[in-house]
Amino acid sequence: MTRISEKIKSVQTRLSKAAGEADLPRLVAVSKTRSEQAIREAAESGLRGFGENYLQEAIPKIEGLADLNLTWHFIGSIQSNKTADIARNFDWVHTVEREKVARRLSDSRPENLLPLNLLIQVNIDDEDSKAGVSTEEIFELAERIQDLPRVKLRGLMAIPKPRADFEAQLSICRQMKHLFDQLKQQYAEIDTLSLGMSSDLEAAVQAGSSLVRIGTDIFGART
Fold first, then answer.
1. DSSP 8-state assignment for residue 185
2. Helix 36-44 to helix 3-19 angle, to the nearest 10 degrees?
3. How far apart are CA 160 and CA 173, in angstroms?
4. For 92-127, how does the pLDDT look when each residue is reduced to its tens digit (9 = 90+)?
5. Contact, 154 vs 141, CB < 8 A?
6. Paired residues of 92 in beta bridges
7. What is the CATH number for 78?
């Protein structure tokens, strides 16, 4: 068993304990700055979803690992002039916060590919330094995305600010779950709440996250 496979097993154990009797969330490995070999090792342990932040770094990996049939999630900030390459190479985009970006992604999505799965990024703590829409803007943006032909809105994503106290983590994660449930009531295809990283995984899962994004606890600390 490799070091990466051991770490994946540890994360999966944490997920199982946090989920209890509920369905396990999907696990996306955050592979930014990681080598193709490290991603291959993670794939050999059963992972199929990988998240990348930087387009120029990601594309060579996606091309080099095409034989593995992986699912690629773009989880970084989106520049308008990068939307075409994102639309051509990724399966999911977690960081949509503007109609203009969603429209560009739709316009650039190749016809031979399935519609691109989108998540609206929510600035749940209303931090000036963090990307994402306010809670009041979610539903207007969602309505506008519904009209775009080559993308499919699947849900919400958030990165809550760090909280050391578990109950505080759980409270903010439950706020996100409430917003997700409201959106789900309006649109039948809403099924993904991307919430939870290494430091708040348990709180996110207990609140009802359906997808967690884990980097360091799978690949180790970046050097």
1. H
2. 50
3. 8
4. 999 999 999 999 999 999 999 999 999 999 999 998
5. no
6. 73, 117
7. 3.20.20.10
